[in-house]
Amino acid sequence: MDDAGQSSITEYVITSLALGLVLEALTPNKVSTVSYVKSIKNLNIYKFIASTFVLYNVFKLILNDASPGMRFGYWIKEGVKALINHSAIGTNTSLGYLMLSIPIVYALKDYELTHGINPYNLAVRASTILVSRASDEDASDFYEALQLINPSYANSYAGSVPDLRNVISRGRYRLSEVLMESSYWDLIAYDITHNYVLTLDAHYFMLRKLTEDFDLFRAVNKTQLFILSRLVDSEVFKSGSVISALNIRAYCSIIIKLINNYHYLEDCYQLTGKLDAELRSRHLNTGTVADILALATSFTLISLPGLNTSAENPLVAV
């Protein structure tokens, strides 16, 4: 493949990575997260639309970064700063998504593009690069990014890595230590250090649903329920609502069992609506699952036949 072809595929992938965030946010009828008609906390659809431009610029900068090794924490920090300083955003919309997507961009930098892009291979390569190189990176930039965005991250932590208030000691820790420790309780950290198994599972489910009626938003909507039925959302969990997090999973496991039965569709809509209203009334945001869902959406965009440069139709193989 010539340089123009390589550049075209690379451009399509980073565009898909940026679009995944806003397509997830635009999807209606999701449970307690931003949609095109509903806001939550200080987040709304306009901020997510503006965030796609910030993400795209960060991805381009990473592709052009000639620094040796991986600068994961640095680009997390730069991305968060760009979001907060943007006049149309002014807050954190994408910390989790930056954590998920930045290793994918690094994997893309020297990915063999001759046969197009395979999301599975790209994800495994991204995780392998991150795990192998994170031991060479100091965790300070990553901690600075956390310190910029949310006071809740400054809560006391009793694990083997320092919390944000321990400024003196945190510079002595490697990024690999922080990510592996976090992976025990945070879905994002687990996913990026374990070959993106959660995102890929959601991606394959979304592809199956997309073959049923070719409605991407409907597929994204069903995939959110699928993820919530299997995982405990880290953001809900960290808010102190452990029982709520477990109840969401149990509730959604019932909905996902009913959703494919035409006779129960109306019941599914009512159950989803009631769950959404309850969580919103308590200001609980399923934001971690939203980040995984956004990357699964990006992977689906990359896999769509006619858009992927690979001759193989990925929808048929799922």
Mean pLDDT, to the nearest integer, reads: 86
Q: In terms of per-residue confidence, which ranges show pLDDT below 50 for 5 or more consecutive residues?
A: 152-160, 306-318
What fraction of residues sit in β-strands?
under 5%
Tally of contiguous helical segments: 16
Tell me the overall shape: globular
- SSE-based structural type: mainly alpha
End-to-end CA span: 27 Å
Q: Tell how many strands the DSSP assignment holds.
A: 0
Q: Sketch the topology as an H/E string, one letter per element.
A: HHHHHHHHHHHHHHHH
What does this structure look like?
The chain has 318 residues and is mainly alpha-helical. It contains 16 helices and no strands. Helix 4 (95-109) runs parallel beside helix 15 (287-303) and helix 10 packs across helix 11. The longest helix has 24 residues, at 3-26. The protein is globular, with a radius of gyration of 19 Å.
Outline the secondary-structure elements:
Layout: H1 3-26, H2 45-63, H3 72-85, H4 95-109, H5 119-133, H6 140-149, H7 167-170, H8 175-182, H9 187-193, H10 197-213, H11 216-228, H12 234-238, H13 242-258, H14 265-281, H15 287-303, H16 314-317
